[in-house]
């Protein structure tokens, strides 16, 4: 099984990915590991990515996920997936993938982002404006402060409905 955990910066994508790893034995891969040198330079200079950069990035990410999926029975990838065209591109390459949109309260998301020293807040705000509402089929889950047990139960129910053995 392949899950793509996506959503706004600070929503808790990596947290949900870690729950799938720790509670259900999934292999967790951070999609940002495929950032190109050009993207890393843009981040350092606080410049937004353009679609040309994203095209290269998502092709690299898709290739990596295909490679990992050959050896990992249950794989979860955490990645923002700002634009719908890239979600669809991944689904075209891997129609068996299941997307999970992680959402949280705006105030909590912003608080989490302020705690991170590796992100420029203005850059993050620009990213948020670019986030496209998903039209692809996806599970929605909330990642609010008191929801760990509820989140685990929701993931467990989802895995059961997908007939996934973990």
Q: What would you say this structure looks like, in words?
A:
There is one protein chain. The protein is of the alpha/beta class and 166 residues long. The chain is built from 7 helices and 5 strands; from the N terminus they run βαβααβαβααβα. A 5-stranded parallel sheet has the order 2-3-1-4-5, with helices on both faces. The mean pLDDT is 87.
Q: Report the mean per-residue pLDDT as an integer.
A: 87
**Poorly predicted runs:** none
Q: Indicate the overall shape.
A: globular
Q: Strand pairing plus helix content: what structural class?
A: alpha/beta
By DSSP, the count of extended strands is: 5
The spatial strand order of the largest sheet comes to 2-3-1-4-5
SSE order = EHEHHEHEHHEH
Q: Report helical residue fraction.
A: 40-55%
Number of helices: 7
What value does the Rg take, in angstroms?
15 Å
